Here is the input.
Amino acid sequence: IFIPLLGGLLAFYFYSAPQSFNEGMLRGKRVIVTGASSGIGEQMAYHLARMETHLLLTARTEAKLQKVVERCLELGAASAHYISGSMENPSFPEVVVKEAETSWGGLDMLILNHIGYSGSSGFNFFDGNVGQVRKLMETNFISYVAMTTLALPMLKESDGSIVVVSSMAGKAGSPFAASYSATKFALDGFFSSLRHEFVMDKVNVSITLCILGYINTESAVRAVSHVIQGTPAPKEECALEIIKAGALRQRELHYPPWVVSAVVLLRGIAPEFLDSITRSWYNVENLRRS
Ligand code: NDP
Here is the structure.
């Protein structure tokens, strides 16, 4: 029963979305990318620049954003600028969305990708720091809701798209990342509910939830490579797949596809089996020494 069911679900997943992406689809579109100073966000900015979009990039580190914007202009962006600040600050989402409104008078795509970090304990056993969980909720979840709420009038006008970058840790519990995992589960709950409401209310704004596995960004490799087994997937390809999924208005992206789809499926049909293989991926000895 398991193999045909798996095959059927994967076939449905891959063939239910329109498959014909072309780079011209995004030419001239106005796009906000959060967390664009490094990692997957930086790579998304470069792909979007090659596709000749207008870009507004954001993160905290101004020096890095300046360099990314320069590179985007070299790569062919229709325009590119940045605004620096922290999403831990509840008033920052308004500053970013206002900037788009003032510069462009509209918005076609909102890519929510930034994440804050789990404080001094980092990737480790939960240390009981409730204040840190609250802070991470603000950065990784509440700011996504605020950005969406503020940008929605412009997105409704353009029949635009919202792209939310999440993780396998937002579909299945993940040891040593309890707070992070909680923020990613919250994204799924909120945005999957909002998607229903958009359909019922005839709001033509797509929501694409991106469920990512282990990707070779500097921060992820630094945080987990000594503890997790397996080779991370390339950030450049991951970034392109996210953009394609957003442009095609796909409901969910699973990347790398087979790993993530298998985890999501097992979570539904054999959660205890998934739990035991999940735990076997981690080298706890290394964690305790780190
Ligand atoms: P990076 O650490 O490389 O990038 C994170 C970005 O967020 C940076 O631009 C950073 O810039 C910005 N950022 C950090 N803190 C804040 C803050 N308080 N306010 C605003 N911006 C902030 O992460 P990745 O590229 O690896 O991850 C990108 C997305 O992919 C995240 O949503 C992550 O959860 C998801 N993901 C990644 C995986 C991986 O293995 N890499 C696996 C699963 C999901 P600055 O420090 O300048 O503010």
Residues 35-41, 59-61, 64, 86-88, 113-116, 139, 165, 167, 212, 214-215, 217, 219-220 surround NDP (CB under 6 Å). Strands lie at 30-34, 54-59, 79-84, 109-112, 161-167, 206-212, 252-255. The first helix runs from residue 2 to 16. The chain is about 55% helix and 15% strand.
